[in-house]
Amino acid sequence: MARYWLAPVTNRNPFTLGGDRFICAPEQDLSDFLQAAVRVRPPLLLPFKAHLLPADEEDGVCGADEGLFSLSSPGDIVFDGDPLRLSGCAEALLDKQSGSQEQADEWLEAIEAALASGRAPKAARSWLDAIRQWLGRGWSVTLLKEEP
Questions:
Q1: In this structure, is the dihedral angle defined by the CA atoms of residues 67, 70, 74 and 78, taken in order, positive or negative?
Q2: What's the pLDDT score for residue 54?
Q3: Alpha helices by DSSP H, 84-122
Q4: Domain with 48 in it
Q5: Range 78-82 contact pairs with CB under 8 angstroms and sequence separation of 24 or more
Q6: What is the number of domains present in the chain?
Q7: CA-to-CA distance for 40 and 32, rounded, in angstroms?
Q8: Of 16, 30, 63, 147, which one's alpha carbon is 20 to 30 angstroms from that of 54?
C-alpha cells in the first residue's frame, strides 16, 4: 500500500527535504483532507511520486533506481548531485508550487475554515500545524507518494 509523506522543502538549491517529514495516516483521512485542499486555488499541496524526484544518472530522465534514498531514513535528504540529482519533473513541480507567502496564508485560512466546518478529519489539524510552522520558517511544503 502506498504511503504519503508530508515534507518541508527547507532549501530549493540544492533541493532539500527536511528531516522532520512524516507519514500522513490513515489514508482515508488524507484523502478527505486533500479533497478540501484541492478546492482552494492555487493549490499548495500537489502530490508527487517520490521515486520521480531523482534524475537517472545516465540520461537525466525522471525517476531513478530504487534504493537511492529512503524517506523513512532520519535527517535531511539533499539533491546536490552527490549522489542525488533532482529530476526535471521535480523541478517542474517546484515551479508550480512557487507561490507567495500571501497565497500560502490564504490557502491555510481556507483549509482551516474547512476544518472548522467539520469537512476535514481531526488528523488533519496536526498536518496543518506542521504546514503552518514550515511555511512560517520560509520553507515550502510537498506531499510525496511512496509506493512499495
A1: positive
A2: 92
A3: 88-97, 101-116
A4: 3-146
A5: 78/11, 78/14, 78/15, 78/16, 79/14, 79/15, 79/16, 79/53, 79/54, 80/14, 81/14
A6: 1
A7: 14
A8: 30
Considering only CA atoms, which of 50, 45, 70 is closest in space to residue 62? 50
The mean pLDDT values, 10 residues at a time, for the chain of 148 residues are 93 95 91 78 79 80 78 96 89 76 81 72 86 91 90
Percent of the chain with pLDDT over 70: 90
In whole angstroms, what separates CA 95 from the centre of its chain?
Answer: 13
Q: Cα separation of 72 and 94, whole Å?
A: 22
Nearest CA among 134, 131, 47 for reference residue 96: 47
Amino acid letter at 67? G
